[in-house]
Amino acid sequence: MPTRTQVAIIGAGPAGLILGHLLHLRGIDSIIIENHDREYVIHRVRAGVLEQGTVDLMHEMGVGDRLAREGLRHEGLYLACDGTRHHIDLAGLTNGRAITIYGQGEVVKDLIDARIATGRPLHFDASNVSVHNIDSEHPSVRYDVNGESYELSCDFIAGCDGFHGVCRPSIPAGALCAYEKTYSFAWLGILAEAAPASPELVYSVHQNGFALFSMRSPQVTRLYLQCAANEDLSQWSDDRIWSELIARLRTHDGWQPNTGPILQKGIAAMRSFVADPMRYGRLYLAGDAAHIVPPTGAKGLNLAAADVWRLSRALAEFYDEGSTAGLDAYSERGLRRTWRAQRFSWWMTTMLHRDATATPFDYRRQIADVEYLVSSRAAMTSFAENYVGVPLE
Ligand code: FAD
Ligand code: DHB
Q1: Which residues are tagged catalytic?
Q2: pLDDT tens-digit profile of 206-239?
Q3: What does the DSSP assignment read for 267-335?
Q4: At a CB cut-off of 8 Å and minimum separation 6, what does 327 contact?
Q5: What SS3 class is residue 177?
Q6: CB atoms within 10 A of CB 252
Q7: Which of 5, 50, 218, 312 could make an SS bond with 54 (beta carbons 3.0 to 4.6 A apart)?
Q8: How far is the CA of 116 from the centre of ligand 2 (A)?
Q9: Which atom of ligand 2 is nearest to the CA of 215?
Q10: What is the CA radius of gyration of the chain?
């Protein structure tokens, strides 16, 4: 195995894989090191909403064929409140921009196939991954694969290893400021073998708590319901999940999600987190390694894609022109986009969920927030431009 590369990428989630491919297209060498196996990375059920900019990037990278065939383009969505569904015309409010439903596992699968086709290294099942000399011009990564130990020297390390990875904690205490907010609730998510009952997403505010109707394909519905942060999944029988989802999503016009066998269920924590700066020496953090948003605004994967798009351009500028301008600006530009997404995700989360400490006043105010949003073109335009995502810059 090579022991030298230009860019060592830690993590084969969306951030690491997109970065690897963008660097490949620029003729820059990289090695991707992932500590789980390929099946785990593909089958982890997570994001579903791709912003217009992320879809465009997949096409520009030449990995958009299956996305074009199987992705579900949505030009609008519904917000439901007190049993009434209100439509928001995302495309009409944003000059034709839209979102595409395409599971994160599918994105990752397409990117792994593309990586393998390039012949460039991607190591699954690595253990004892650690980063060294990150404040020098000669950083290195140590890891074990198949019982062998490796020391990889490189010019740069991209920390694309998610929120629980090793890269961020390798930055000396004091060099990083962490901004954090935790929430008193989580999401219980299911995949069900049931045809989607609506062609577009439904975000619902309900006195029992938030619920979300989404989908993965013409045969599979994806649903979420707000639960306690420390919820015990074993307390949720399939019957209980369906009756709560239907209670929270059913609208007065008789609409409700179709039911069917539950294929998968899990609980996702809610957190807002920002690491500032996104860089230390020659270690650059990207995606969930640098920031986490609560899933309500569907921004996490899209932010990860925007980070590595910027990082790939900065690295190309360095190798092609010897300029560090893009690398020097990486953190500041990334933080600007991150805080914009943080604000939007926090706002959507607090508007749509019931907090354990909320009073009846708070709930009435939340309903008023939603009613204003769906009745004002100005408010809907602001929502739509954030939801479909600002262009990559
Ligand atoms: P990850 O996907 O976490 O990838 C990091 C990789 O690094 C993993 O493969 C991990 O195994 C690996 N790794 C970790 N530690 C190490 C180590 N020590 N050594 C080597 N490898 C390591 N985002 C959206 O944009 N739209 C949505 O609709 C959306 N919905 C969501 C719904 C849910 C329920 C959840 C939980 C999240 C959702 N997100 C959404 C967020 C999105 O899934 C994440 O933001 C996204 O996965 C971030 O990608 P990443 O590559 O930065 O990190
Ligand atoms: C999905 C996830 C989200 O976080 C969201 O806001 C909308 C849809 C999904 O998994 O389909």
Answers
A1: 74, 203, 295, 299, 387
A2: 999 999 999 999 999 999 999 999 999 999 999 9
A3: EE--EEEEEESSEETTEEE-GGGTEE--GGG--HHHHHHHHHHHHHHHHHHHHHH---HHHHHHHHHHH
A4: 279, 284, 314, 315, 317, 318
A5: strand
A6: 10
A7: 50
A8: 29
A9: 11
A10: 21
